[in-house]
Amino acid sequence: MSIAEKPILSMRQQICETVRAEVFAGQMTNDQPVREQPLAERFGVSRGSVRDALLQLSQEGVLVYSPNRGVRVSSPPSDTEFRLYAKLRKEIEGHCLDVCMDQLTEEDDRNLTNLLATLEDSCRRGDLSKITETDLAMHRYWVSRASTELESVWLSITVRMLIAYTLLEDYMQCYQEHAAIVEAIVRRDLKTAKRAMNENIRYK
Amino acid sequence: MSIAEKPILSMRQQICETVRAEVFAGQMTNDQPVREQPLAERFGVSRGSVRDALLQLSQEGVLVYSPNRGVRVSSPPSDTEFRLYAKLRKEIEGHCLDVCMDQLTEEDDRNLTNLLATLEDSCRRGDLSKITETDLAMHRYWVSRASTELESVWLSITVRMLIAYTLLEDYMQCYQEHAAIVEAIVRRDLKTAKRAMNENIRYK
DNA sequence: CAACTTCGAATTGTTAACAATCAGACAATA
DNA sequence: TATTGTCTGATTGTTAACAATTCGAAGTTG
To answer: With respect to CATH, is domain A11-73 assigned 3.40.50.300?
Structure first.
């Protein structure tokens, strides 16, 4: 994404992105409360903005909220729920590929290729939190290109799956799978792209 | 639900429920902004609580939020998105019936039967906003019994479908369909309940 | 007359102080 | 000992004032 069109994220969005990434990086253990005051000091803002962000992350499913008791990191879903989420994700992402495939530009191709390069690097280094972040960003890319409405639904499903992201057995396989998706997208080969995407979103 | 266990809704939840119902009742036209101050005065609270509620409704998909410009009622989804939402809803509600069928109590049966009676009355009177409200409450019932996590995902999908709820062709058919679902549930007949539910969640 | 600039009212964004609530420690009691 | 009640510090919930931003209505200029 070029600098000129980089959107200026609101304070709330910044906090959301940061905290969400840290949850996926495992830097926040579940069942341990996430306090407002420390986060406010860290970001140099007041509790109000932090509250907004934590509320949004609760709606997303990254955190769970208890009245008068604050928020904590969500627990992983059960196996049956995980499988349901995987199924829903496949249908949403398949729909999004249908919609956006024809309207992708060469810049989109470049952005996806760059994300793929970042993913490859992260996989080689074995940087799990960066892998998760980039994986999320790639899938999010074609979803957001199709529909911002769907993006919100998709995110709330996907974050619940990622809470369960403990360990990959094979980093390079993760890269290979995404390479196959991106390659098919760049060729505008819808059928192959969808098949590759379906294989990547696996049951546990 | 007995009085003893009726949960005391937080201010935010109260505002959410009320505004959401009014959006579905068509009392708020889309593309017209929803202002914070009037709502705050109406509920007798400060803007902060209203902000929280509007933010939550934006996450849900009932409202759309623009930075520095407030929120407005969402626009109906496209036909293809509507069909996708319907598909996702069927899978979620089917899963929820699977999960909760065995653990429903006689009190649940009574609650569902009461909701059905309310729906019948609303359909006879042709009170569209009440029909929508009760319809939502019934489906929500078995979803919430299965999983509060899924309830949140389900709601964000379902509200987007209901934004498109303009007119039913036949009120009593709506009642009949729900009667079939509840009857099967009370008999703990999973297969019939799921089939009836699938028929009720129709494409446009 | 069309395009641009400036200004101000309306609205949202942010903050800090205050109120309400909760969890845990500790003491009193049967 | 197990239970209950009470206190206290920590945390969230709410509020009202202030800051920043938007948008439209004027006015200005070519």
So the answer is: no
